[in-house]
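RECORD TYPE: inverse folding
INPUT: structure tokens
STRUCTURE:
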């Protein structure tokens, strides 16, 4: 089963980024929603299906529910023309059927890919080192920042300094949460920079990778889905 997942169910990072770009561009412009609303709704659900497959149950379930509600509102024209409430419903439709799918696909691309896969993929498409190295360092830094903040928050919780108690005391929030976090991040920034150097991330030098990057069966299926989406987009635009 492990080999089956590795060969047939693994999507290359380059495919994920391509899908993010195509979904963002085609859905935001809106002509697919006007000419083929069902197709637009199906492709709006696509990122959440992938998130569901990578076991992000909470985000996937919420996304599928909200996209379904937004599609019903759009199809049945519910309260769209009823003043301020109609504007609010129209905004919901715009967000979940046009804006969020591209972002959610990008989230899936980042969450389901290791840093070695991301680095190897960027190198494979001949991305310059001036782009690869900052992306690699920032990704590690933000991940470490999240963990550091969680640890600071847990330590303050043990002392009874919860969000509820600090909400009306912004200066104490700054002193007991933000200042310790900044002190930790100062050391984290140095550690991440050193880690990047020890991993061989240097400008103008080749870097080997243990991660194997190649397109599989699911990648070609995703390419086919994106070609179909582009076909609907062009058909709606130039028909």
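DESIGNED SEQUENCE:
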């Amino acid at each position: 089963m492990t080999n089956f997942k590795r060969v047939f169910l693994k999507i290359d990072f380059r495919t994920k980024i391509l899908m993010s770009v195509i979904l963002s561009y085609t859905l935001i412009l809106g002509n697919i929603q006007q000419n083929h609303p069902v197709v637009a709704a199906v492709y709006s659900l696509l990122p959440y299906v992938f998130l569901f497959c990578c076991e992000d149950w909470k985000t996937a379930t919420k996304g599928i529910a909200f996209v379904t509600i937004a599609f019903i509102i759009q199809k049945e024209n519910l309260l769209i023309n009823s003043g301020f409430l109609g504007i609010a419903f129209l905004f919901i439709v715009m967000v979940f059927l046009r804006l969020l799918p591209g972002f959610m696909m990008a989230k899936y691309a980042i969450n389901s890919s290791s840093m070695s896969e991301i680095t190897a993929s960027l190198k494979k498409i001949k991305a310059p080192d001036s782009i690869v190295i900052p992306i690699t360092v920032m990704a590690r830094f933000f991940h470490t920042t999240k963990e550091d903040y969680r640890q600071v928050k847990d330590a303050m919780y043990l002392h009874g300094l919860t969000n509820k108690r600090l909400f009306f005391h912004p200066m104490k929030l700054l002193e007991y949460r933000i200042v310790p976090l900044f002190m930790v991040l100062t050391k984290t920034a140095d550690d991440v920079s050193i880690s990047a150097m020890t991993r061989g991330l240097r400008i103008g030098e080749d870097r080997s990778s243990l991660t194997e990057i190649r397109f599989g069966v699911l990648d070609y299926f995703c390419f086919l889905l994106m070609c179909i989406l582009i076909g609907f987009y062009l058909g709606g635009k130039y028909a």
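NOTES: DSSP finds eleven helices and no strands in the chain.
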